[in-house]
Amino acid sequence: MAYPTQMGFQDAASPIMEELLYFHDHTLMIVFMISSLVLYTISLMLTTSLTHTNTMNAQEVETVWTILPAIILILIALPSLRILYMMDEINNPSLTIKTMGHQWYWTYEYTDYENMTFDSYMTSTNDLTPGELRLLEVDNRMILPTELPIRVLVSSEDVLHSWTVPSLGLKTDAIPGRLNQTTLMASRPGLYYGQCSEICGANHSFMPIVLELIPLKYFEKWLLTML
Amino acid sequence: MLDADAQKPPRGKWSTPPFDPRFPNQNQTRNCYQNFLDYHRCVKTMNRRGKSTQPCEYYFRVYRSLCPVSWVQRWNEQIREGTFAGKI
């Protein structure tokens, strides 16, 4: 989950998020290189007493500083489009779960087999046990099996919300009257936290999302206890 | 028959609705609604012809997996009252 003085993304828990991390590293490196080159050039310009007053044309350098940025942009665009298409790949989900946003909590519906629905409210700060995370813990976590593609359908029962889990690279808007689909595939078990990402009223900051990813056989056992 | 709670899916191998190429994008609203309509139309037609409604169970399971419970309850209520907007 997020931690104090964090500078980068959370560790990836899904293959897509790993790809996004690599892409971000690649693009940020290009940004840093260009910025340092520009800063260096500016510093040179400001610290010289030499002058040159009769430049007429600069065909060669103009060509270079047109072609080179075009190449750099292509080098950014290609990996970006690759990941975009990867996110849209058709997969065969093993499970479908609906996430309904309310003011100010989430409801999770597991209706592939029986009608199982439960609410997920934030644990208030007074009720936290030592070691728990303030403003991030919930009473009922969304429990899911690892390493299986899961179809998550996000909607809302009142106003706009947004269902987010940064470590899985997920952010899907919850729009009343609309059913938005996203695919979740966690590579490893664990607890993954997120927060509502669309302003939705007084307690917008207090309706977090917690995913508890467990191996399939424990997930099946849990399902049996819930039904 | 229209109450979502009273309808239990038949036993057998059901995992989750497969990918439907008619609805390939992020917005699955129509996928849910279409299967709901198809189930009711199928049941109405089968009943009119005096046949078993067993083939309609596929649509039932798909809409139950995809559609939010509150939407299904609202639509069933509208069907009961005769105010449902869709053509069944």
From TrEMBL, chain A:
Cofactor: Cu cation
Domain Cytochrome oxidase subunit II transmembrane region profile: start-end pairs: 1-91
Keyword Transport found: yes
Subcellular location: Mitochondrion inner membrane
Catalytic activity: 4 Fe(II)-[cytochrome c] + O2 + 8 H(+)(in) = 4 Fe(III)-[cytochrome c] + 2 H2O + 4 H(+)(out)
Primary localization: mitochondrion
Cofactor note: Binds a copper A center.
CC annotations in GO: mitochondrial inner membrane
GO-annotated biological processes: ATP synthesis coupled electron transport
Location of the Cytochrome oxidase subunit II copper A binding domain: 92-225
UniProt-listed Pfam families: COX2, COX2_TM
Keyword Membrane attached: yes
Membrane spanning residue stretches: 27-46, 66-85
Keywords of this entry: Copper, Electron transport, Magnesium, Membrane, Metal-binding, Mitochondrion, Mitochondrion inner membrane, Respiratory chain, Translocase, Transmembrane, Transmembrane helix, Transport
Domain of life: Eukaryota
A GO molecular-function annotation: copper ion binding
Membrane topology: Multi-pass membrane protein
PANTHER family tied to this protein: CYTOCHROME C OXIDASE SUBUNIT 2 (PTHR22888:SF9), CYTOCHROME C OXIDASE, SUBUNIT II (PTHR22888)
Family: Belongs to the cytochrome c oxidase subunit 2 family.
Role according to the record: Component of the cytochrome c oxidase, the last enzyme in the mitochondrial electron transport chain which drives oxidative phosphorylation. The respiratory chain contains 3 multisubunit complexes succinate dehydrogenase (complex II, CII), ubiquinol-cytochrome c oxidoreductase (cytochrome b-c1 complex, complex III, CIII) and cytochrome c oxidase (complex IV, CIV), that cooperate to transfer electrons derived from NADH and succinate to molecular oxygen, creating an electrochemical gradient over the inner membrane that drives transmembrane transport and the ATP synthase.
Protein name: Cytochrome c oxidase subunit 2
Annotated source species: Daubentonia madagascariensis (Aye-aye)
Gene symbol of the encoding locus: COX2
From TrEMBL, chain B:
Subcellular location: Mitochondrion inner membrane
Gene3D superfamilies, sorted: Cytochrome c oxidase, subunit VIb (1.10.10.140)
Spans annotated as Disordered: 1-26
Pfam families attached to this UniProt entry: COX6B (PF02297)
UniProt-listed InterPro entries: COX6B-like, CX6/COA6-like_sf, Cyt_c_oxidase_su6B
SUPFAM superfamilies reported in the protein's UniProt record: Cytochrome c oxidase subunit h
Record's keyword annotation contains Membrane: yes
Chief place where the protein resides: mitochondrion
Assigned keywords, A-Z: Disulfide bond, Membrane, Mitochondrion, Mitochondrion inner membrane
Function recorded in the entry: Component of the cytochrome c oxidase, the last enzyme in the mitochondrial electron transport chain which drives oxidative phosphorylation.
Family: Belongs to the cytochrome c oxidase subunit 6B family.
Protein name: Cytochrome c oxidase subunit
Organism whose genome encodes this protein: Daubentonia madagascariensis
Record lineage: Eukaryota, Metazoa, Chordata, Craniata, Vertebrata
